[in-house]
Amino acid sequence: MTIKAIQEEIVDEFSMFEDWMQRYEYMIELGKSLPLIDEQYKTDDNIIKGCQSKVWVHAELDDDKLVFTADSDAVITKGIIAILIRAFSNQKPQDIIDANTDFIDEIGLKEHLSPTRANGLVSMIKQLKLYAVAYQTQLN
Amino acid sequence: MIKVGLDVAKIREDFPILKRKVNGHNLVYLDNAATSQTPRQVIDVIVDYYQRLNANIHRGVHTLSQEATDAYEQARIKIQKHFNIAKNHEVILTSGTTHSINIVANGFTSLLQKGDELLVSAMEHHSNIVPWQMLCERTGAVLKVIPMNNEGDLVMGEYHKLLSHNTKLVFCNHVSNALGTINPIKEIIEAAHQKGAAVLIDGAQAAPHIKADLQSLDVDFYTISAHKVCGPTGIGMLYGKESWLNKLPPYQGGGEMIAEVTFEKTTYADLPHKFEAGTPNICGGITFGAALDYMNAIGFEEIAAYEHELLHYATSELLKIEGLKIYGTAKNKTSVISFNIEGIHPYDMGTILDKLGIAVRTGHHCAQPIMDFYKIPGTVRASFCFYNTQEEVDVLVTAVKRAKNMLL
Lengths: 140, 408
Hints:
The complex is a heterodimer. Chain A is mainly α. Chain A has helices at residues 3-15, 20-32, 75-88, 93-98, 103-106, 121-139; strands at residues 55-62, 65-72. Chain B is of the alpha/beta class. Chain B has helices at 8-13, 40-53, 63-82, 97-107, 130-139, 156-162, 185-194, 214-217, 242-247, 282-298, 300-318, 346-355, 368-374, 390-407; strands at 21-22, 25-26, 28-29, 91-94, 117-121, 142-146, 167-173, 198-202, 221-225, 236-240, 258-261, 266-268, 324-327, 336-341, 358-359, 361-363, 379-383. In chain B, strands 4-10-9-8-7-5-6 form a seven-stranded mixed beta sheet, with helices on both faces. Chain B has a four-stranded antiparallel beta sheet with strand order 13-14-17-16, with helices on one face. A two-stranded antiparallel ribbon of chain B has the order 1-2. Classes of the chains: A mainly alpha, B alpha/beta.
């Protein structure tokens, strides 16, 4: 599936929820079921700066696709990471670079994009894209 | 049940923002240690200033300038009286506590030598740590830490041992922003003076709860921010004893702070203007005075007594929640509760509470050394003001339970 198709699928899923409670409960579930990053990658080097909770992201190339694993010490943050990984992992680096992220707004998580939340959703997206840029250079 | 000593319902009418809805709920504002809300009486002064008085001060001969100058200088006198300060030129109006501390830290650059010692308490806000670290880097002075214990009290025995004739400066907050501990500043000041050291007390968190008598404390420097006492942001006070302020060089150069300027040499203005370069926050200064008037009309003893009851009630209700731990259990504390629930990240708790209309602070509260001491990433901090109610405490407790069920 393309990133765009996955994002549309996520937006569809979230549109079924009637209120924020259900949305957050779903995100917490996603967070709890996030496939964990290998412990060896939970290093200070892999921490994303600008988050109130700790977020570790690791990326590696599988053939021509980039695979992300991640973890956080806060469960809502883990839920957000799970959504991002679902959209961006197992994709070609160039597609990740080109992808837009409006779906975050559409699934009602706009508040997490605000810099005052200091949870670093913006930093997370930036970091995923930076990894993609780095691996794209490698592929070239 | 809280015995109400204040007419809280009437007081709440003074604060338009408390009528706001947040995420469909009545706002429950419990982030007062970060900033307090502003009553209508203070907002009116801001509006009146721009509608009737706005002019630059201390220089115009025209009526508006003179009236604005009078109002600004009247505010300085209000602040002087509030803190029982001997001379009104010992009140320096700054942009806030951080600015105030930086004026002193910068001023001491020429007064310290390599090997001099500075003592800092373990429970300081970053604004009362970093300027001194920068001062140490400039001068070769050494920063030593007065430790705290598990309850969140300073270990005073260690403080007395750390003090020596090498100690030149001691700085400590009157009240800890992260824990609410009221520090024994009288003892700290007296002991430091016996060794010839100067003392700066950061009063930012004390000011909304305690009316400090600075002459009786005999403190050398005391700093506060107006936005903690129902005033506006961007204005605060540096109190310094005249003898110290005369010793310190100016922090910033510019207009207002000069006596005479030629290209060969400039002489500085007298106190307080020496430290007030540039056009000040005139409206802020006037409004700062109005905010103190507002709080004094309610009465600091009444405020403290009511907040103590709120703190006591909230503490006992929150502790009924299984797995909830309060950080900072000093006997003497202000109405601040820092807590976590086992297995729940404070950021997650804060996010859910916000969805329920409750404003709390989460994170390290700009006091990372305290979080390192407890080995936690941060806390959820609920801080209560005299306009908060018992019902709001109940809303908080219910919301914390609901968030706990969602998150665990």
